[in-house]
Structures are given as structure tokens and as C-alpha cells.
Write a structure and sequence with these properties.
The complex is a heterodimer of chains A (126) and B (127). Chain A has 126 residues and is α+β, with helices and mostly antiparallel strands. Chain A is built from 3 helices and 6 strands, in the order ααββαββββ. Chain A is globular. Chain A starts with a helix and ends in an 11-residue tail after the last strand. In chain B, 28% of the residues lie in helices and 45% in strands. Chain B is built from 3 helices and 6 strands, in the order ααββαββββ. In chain B, a hairpin with a 7-residue loop joins β1 and β2. The two termini of chain B are 28 Å apart. Classes of the chains: A alpha+beta (126), B alpha+beta (127).
Chain lengths: 126, 127
């Protein structure tokens, strides 16, 4: 089982890749068969489908960054509370609180369960 | 079962039994309860009591389940499922949720629940 320090390091690298909108780096952190899940549709996403979603978010937001409320190790990975922030094309600020349970094996993210209220994503769809 | 998990389990049982006094006994006096992250939090037991009174008029036939949990330091993280009938509309509401409990001793000092607010029950959601 991954140690706490390694899990938190993966978490930090994951956030850095997202903030840099570097999807190749994001892909490199995912296991090829990673299981990505969100509470609002309760569907499993493949890595490629997840990357498409991220690419869409990256197009919609400037100054994208994550305010990390807390990132703590748990057995087999880490837990993270965060607020995704950015600026919409309209110039308005965007904020979406969420939390995620991330499992890590052999230096790769094997599962990510993220909980949020999709109502907070409405400004992205306008 | 850990001390923190046993306290949250007692909270869950008190909620399902409608025992407000027992429910509130597990909360710190200055509890900060985000019953839905993104909505205004409830601060203090009195406000939580009002929320419980309101919740009872809305939610019937409540199912509240805790499926997984982990803890570190003063925090307990739970993943679970809540389902109830909205008595205002008759609709069955169902959602998975994640709850984060921050403890001060044996009392819950902060509580945040993350879930989809508008979650009318769908067949696939209950599968």
C-alpha cells in the first residue's frame, strides 16, 4: 500500500497538472484503467472521457486554480477538499466546492470519487 | 469501531429516531454545520435545532446509510447514501453523499456534506 507522503505528493502533482491545463501530465498520473466517478450522475468515466471533460473546463475558465481546503492521507490514497476557481468568459468569478477520495497504486491514480453539486457548474454551460 | 465513528453512528441513529436531544448532544455548542456545501452554514445548536424541525416537515421515510469511512487526525470522512420522500411534492429524493466531520474531543465541531441537491430519484440511481 502506498505510503502517506507518496500519496500526498501525487495529489500535489495532480493539482499542478490541472492548474497548468497540462492534460498529458494529467494522463500520465492516471492508471490506464483508472475509475473516475462523480456523485451527480453516478457514472464511471474512462480516462479519455475524463480528459475531455477537463479540456472543456479548461476552455471555459481562465486563471484556473484550486483552493485546497484540506488534503489528508487515508489508507491507499488521499482525501481532498477543494474549491475550483477561475474566471468565466464574462469576467465573472467561478467557484465550485468539491471533495474527492483518490486511490493511488504504484504512483498512479487508480480511482477518483468526486462529490459536488452540479448546480455549481451551471455558469460553465452558459 | 473507532470512537469518532461510534459518535457519528449515534448521530445517525438519533436522526432516524427523530431524537433531536440525542442528536444535538453530539454537537459542539458552536457547531458549524454545512448541511449542503455551497449553501449558508448553520452556526450553533439552536440553528441546527430549527433545521431539524424544518427537515422533519419535509423528509419522510428517510434512509441514511454510511457505506465507507476513513479517519485522520480530528477528521472522519464518510461516504454514504440518503433517500427520503419530499412531503411537499411526494417525490422520492436520493443521493450519494460525502460527509466530513471535524471533532473537538467527543463533539462534532464542523460538519460538511457534499451532494447533488436536486436529485429526484432515478431508476438508475437506485440500481
Amino acid at each position: 500500500m502506498i505510503d502517506a507522503e507518496s500519496a500526498l505528493t501525487i495529489g500535489a502533482r495532480f493539482m499542478q497538472a490541472l492548474e497548468e491545463k497540462d492534460l498529458d501530465a494529467v494522463r500520465s498520473l492516471y492508471a490506464s484503467d483508472a475509475r473516475l466517478w462523480h456523485n451527480f450522475d453516478q457514472q464511471l468515466q474512462s480516462v479519455e472521457d475524463n480528459l475531455k471533460t477537463l479540456e472543456w473546463i479548461h476552455r471555459k475558465l481562465d486563471d484556473l486554480h484550486y483552493d485546497i481546503v484540506r488534503r489528508e492521507p487515508i489508507p491507499g490514497g488521499y482525501y481532498q477538499q477543494h474549491v475550483l476557481r477561475g474566471t468565466l468568459a464574462s469576467g465573472e468569478a467561478f467557484a465550485m466546492p468539491a471533495c474527492a477520495i483518490v486511490k493511488v497504486e504504484d504512483g498512479k491514480i487508480t480511482s477518483l470519487d468526486e462529490y459536488l453539486d452540479s448546480a455549481h457548474t451551471a455558469p460553465l454551460r452558459q | 469501531m473507532s470512537r469518532k465513528m461510534s459518535i457519528v453512528e449515534a448521530l445517525r441513529e438519533a436522526s432516524l429516531a427523530g431524537d433531536h436531544e440525542a442528536f444535538l448532544s453530539h454537537l459542539a455548542d458552536d457547531i458549524e454545520y454545512h448541511y449542503h456545501v455551497g449553501s449558508r452554514p448553520l452556526i450553533g445548536k439552536e440553528w441546527v435545532q430549527k433545521f431539524l424541525n424544518s427537515y422533519e416537515t419535509i423528509a419522510a421515510d428517510v434512509e441514511w446509510r454510511i457505506d465507507r469511512h476513513a479517519e485522520t487526525g480530528d477528521c472522519l470522512f464518510v461516504e454514504g447514501y440518503e433517500e427520503y420522500t419530499d412531503q411537499r411534492t411526494g417525490e422520492r429524493i436520493a443521493h450519494p453523499y460525502m460527509g466530513i466531520f471535524e471533532f473537538d474531543g467527543d463533539k462534532v465541531a464542523k460538519w460538511r456534506d457534499y451532494f447533488e441537491m436536486d436529485n429526484r430519484k432515478k431508476e438508475e440511481a437506485s440500481a
